Amino acid sequence: ECMHCSGENYDGKISRTMSGLECQAWDSQTPHAHGYIPS
């Protein structure tokens, strides 16, 4: 299953990225740190 949009309204069962990382909330820095800082 591939997403070609922001995915913010995604309600499916896939919980891993294409590279195998566990998905997390956009406003969380755990378990993976990222550069997106919500305002």
Structural commentary:
By secondary structure, the chain is mostly loops. The N and C termini lie far apart (29 Å). The mean pLDDT is 77. One of its GO terms (biological process) is proteolysis. This is Plasminogen. It comes from Ateles geoffroyi. It holds the Pfam family Kringle. One of its GO terms (molecular function) is signaling receptor binding.
What are the defining features of this structure?
little secondary structure
N- to C-terminal separation? 29 Å
The amount of helix comes to under 10%
Q: Give the amount of beta strand, in percent.
A: under 5%
Major sheet summary line: none
> Which shape, going by the Cα principal axes?
globular
SS content category: little secondary structure
Number of extended strands:
0
From the alpha carbons, calculate the radius of gyration and give it in angstroms.
11 Å
* Tally of individual helices: 0
Which stretches are low in confidence, meaning pLDDT under 50 for 5 or more residues running?
A: none
Q: Would you tell me the overall average pLDDT?
A: 77
Organism: Ateles geoffroyi
GO molecular function: endopeptidase activity; signaling receptor binding
Pfam families: Kringle
Protein name: Plasminogen
